[in-house]
Amino acid sequence: MKIRRIAGSVAVLAAGALVLAGCGGGSGSGTSGGGQTGVVTVNGSEPENPLIPTNTNETGGGKIIDLINSGLFYYDADGIPQPEIAASVTSDDKIVWTVALDDGWVFSDGSPITAHSFVDAWNFGALSSNNQLNGYWFQDIEGFDALQAETQDGQVIAPPEKTEMSGLVVLDDLTFTITLTSALADYPLRLGYAAYYPLPEAAFDDVDAYGRAPLSSGPYTIAENGWRHNQEIRLIPNDMYSGGRTPMNKGVTVKFYTGLDAAYNDLLSGNLDVLDSIPPSSFATFENELGMRAVNQPAAIFQSFTIPQWLDHFTGAEGALRRAAISHAIDRETITSTIFSGTRTPAVDFTSPVIDGWSDSIEGSDVLTYDPAKAVELWAQADAVSRWTGTFTIAYNADGGHQEWVDAVTNSIRNVLGIEAVAQSYGDFATMRTDVNAARNGAPSGLTGAWRSGWQADYPGLYNFLGALYGTGGSSNDGNYSDPAFDALLLQGNQAATLDEANGFFQESQTILFKDLPAIPLWYSNVTGGFSTSVDGVVFGWNSVPLYWDITKK
Amino acid sequence: MVRYLGRRLLQAVPVFFGATLLIYFMVFALPGDPVLALGGDRGISDALAAQLREQYNLDKPFIVQYLLYLQGILTGDFGTTFAGRPVGELIASAFPVTFQLALMALAFEAILGIGAGLVAGLRKGKLFDATVLVVSLLVIAVPTFVIGFVLQFVVGVRWGWLPVTVGSNVSFTSLLMPAMVLGAVSFAYVLRLTRTSVAENLSADFVRTATAKGLSRRRVVNVHVLRNSLIPVITFLGADLGALMGGAIVTEGIFNIHGVGGTLFAAIRQGHAPTVVSFTTILVIVYILANLLVDLLYAALDPRIRYDD
Lengths: 554, 309
Description:
heterodimer
């Protein structure tokens, strides 16, 4: 058989394709943009994990989790925890905490929220065989270790011994106690975080299925067929919600974006109401383009680079001099204003200005000022101890927009101190993380010096920025810093009777960090955002996420 | 003809296995531990890391991982992403929109490219020809993302003629601008290819013969010149369909289209082999089919080419 003339020209085929393509389109159109009355559209991204509070550790899923769940507390605009389901959380010794719940709270299927809803959810999250990314949140509760599988060389060799933490005891339907392994004065501050949200019994039958269609206990609930994967999720007010976050709008539609540039253009053209992050390409212009509708304020994000304790020339007295010299050699003001167009704020401590207890006048913080003469002097003193040779490097992951500032910082160091200082580039975050982990554990690693580090607060407390990063054996203490006096001050803070007293100790502990400089503080990230002319009442919370329930639509 | 088709399709089988094996190996060889990246700056506990590795078969040797993946595919299970979504679901959501976009881009570049190329070729050296050459040169020289951002800002944001982004609103109008941006560079190539080919064929023997036979100018151009000139253009378009589908990442990013490019890019960054391999394999199959179609079209365009039994 031969092919006869199929078509005179390809144009006919192509035209057919065009028609076909056009036909396919009709079905896809749905509600989007600012179309529906009273509904606020905001930017977001497809959740990377099922919508389970203990398994969501990224912002895309996090902002949805926070809107469809209630916790013991919620955070107001200033980061102060306000009781939501909790009636009270009290402790005499800061070790055993008694939690009393308000009566009458229900999940959106009508089942009551009881002490079991919390305790079961926390045990589920802590049990390592459930693979919950937020499991580490429960590590301070007594009996946590028994819920962790034993591993050797990256392989599980023994499953967890138990499935329930001994530190959680249900007293009655509305009361339970939490026993911690050691005193933590700021513990209630943490209880507003997503990992501590309750889960209904129905969730545990098939958690993955529940994560795709979760019930609500929060101010909003997912509309019927409202989750269109990779496109948008439509949230409508939850009638059964009775807490303090009363929705002031008729719903929130989170539109998923592949990139911030597209979202910003949608904001400019009125197709998006609230944008919680300005694309770097518009840093220089967004405040002009949006005027009063632009937001640019410090956030609970601290950025630094870590100089590990094992690096030659950076230990002991010589190391302290060199670390201070390097800190003095960095022109933070110029770098934040030129490279970041003022969307970073030079750091004056190791935490963040949005955290209650933050201070800009901690003793020793002058080491963060740009002072070339002092830097040269300190470096010369260190050279007297042992002569410097080699190259100072700062590693960064090229997929996170870090190259420019790392180059600027190494340039600044090179120009002031006259030493070789260069950036060490890793292709992506996973590669850098692998090398940092290996180096930390003493294994062979390609890491040649310092690396960029940072911390975004999980809860609005000073300890959150200090304990895990610089405490001896801390889970994110990648530079293996250890100082008994610093640990002692953290402990004193944790045992303090009041949060104010605790904050005093946490501030004092930073005077030690300023002497030892386990990491060189650089700046706080700002939250940059904007909103359209059709919404009012846009306020960004301590965690850089707008208080969506408070937004009204004109 | 049927045997020819069968033989060509059979050839796709080893290509399928070769491609999946090769791509799986490349993802496997990517540096960095995908499980560690899941924890972000905070890191991840040893117990959790070990369990996740086990769950996603990352603790097994390469060949075992690959065979487990193949076994899954043959039973219709493409694996699950780190987010717990079936990869099959990802395919079902990403491919239709990208396919629609690629078809529209292909139609755009074919209709306008061949049309303008034909006119330019027939009037070689005249004003239209010169203008078209300059314009196409510009389109080739300017990077796609520049064309994309400028069009989006001017036509979408400033004038408001077309939707600024696509997102959940996938329709002919919302995809129009992205399709033009995506097809822009190929449009310029198609135009130049057609123009050269037409100009060359105009002075070929068979065209002179046709004209000498007394055929009308219209018939000479349509049947003799154009049909013969289309062979290189069709070859280009066939290969381009695959390139448009896999290479739309820039355009997809600018216009917020949740298609193949973006999903694939995210999966590569996460080091998630099942997604990467499934997506690229489908792209490979699209290439194979498009090429087969091109070969069949040759026979339609050029009577000298036959695929006999």
